[in-house]
Amino acid sequence: MSHPDILLIGHVTRDLLSADLQSDYRLGGTVSFGAVTAARLGRAPTVVTRAAASTDLSALPAEAEVMALPSPATTTFANVYTERGRVQRCHAQALPIRSGDVEGRLRRPRAVLLGPLVNEIGPDVAGIFDDATLVVATPQGWMRRWDDAGRVYSERWDDAGGILACLNVVVLSEEDIEHDLSRLEPFFERVPLVVVTASREGSTLYQRGGRGAIVKTRIPPRPAEEVDPTGAGDVFATAFMIRLEETGNPVESARFANVAASFGVEHAGMGGIPGRETILAYMREHPFGAATGEP
């Protein structure tokens, strides 16, 4: 078989629709939102994940090649959104994903998104890809823990160096770093391009410039009528990665990703993720002028 186009690695999740652990759930996780986004953009996604055999994966696009490795449980979350942000609880975890789980033919995609949710992607995975591959990570799952009741909280990623050295791009939210921009310093030191999303405020690019200076560029949002913000960061990261692989232009890619994510939050679940022409039509109708970088 040929090498994959867009590779997505991480756990699919059971996102509970109520606090009852036996309640219905919606399929979630970075790789799920990423697979739908890639398919809607006309790309061919391949997913490497772990889940229990009973997990309903039918929400993944028909275009996706899905490698669902066995696990006794599927990673399970409950999300509650408040005025002060999201309260998240982790009720179950699938088994980890290690480099040996990624077949040799999968190691030369055009782009790969590492989307850990519960620290499931081992540090050995980031370095297995061909030099021509665009390697992107959403590191939230390496940057959080949970207490005995399952409540998720943010934590510093102190052993990040080995993984960061293998990445071309990091995409994370202000929430992931508890709005503490000083926590970005390790990323700036090792990764040439860091993107920070800020919900309704759009996103900010941090690019390493001459003599190691970091150039900051703010990218405005598309105003949206928010219905369900779950997965917005995953849609953004996937859209950004795909557009960057296609154009090599980080500013255009961030604008493209802002628009994609804004459409996605206007519907529950993955139903609102837009197609390519919807995004490009909005961008044509609302042109974004030359950005001003701030050192």
From TrEMBL:
GO terms for cellular component: cytosol. Keywords: Kinase, Transferase. Pfam families: PfkB. Residues 181-270 form the Carbohydrate kinase PfkB domain. GO terms for molecular function: kinase activity. This is Carbohydrate kinase PfkB domain-containing protein.
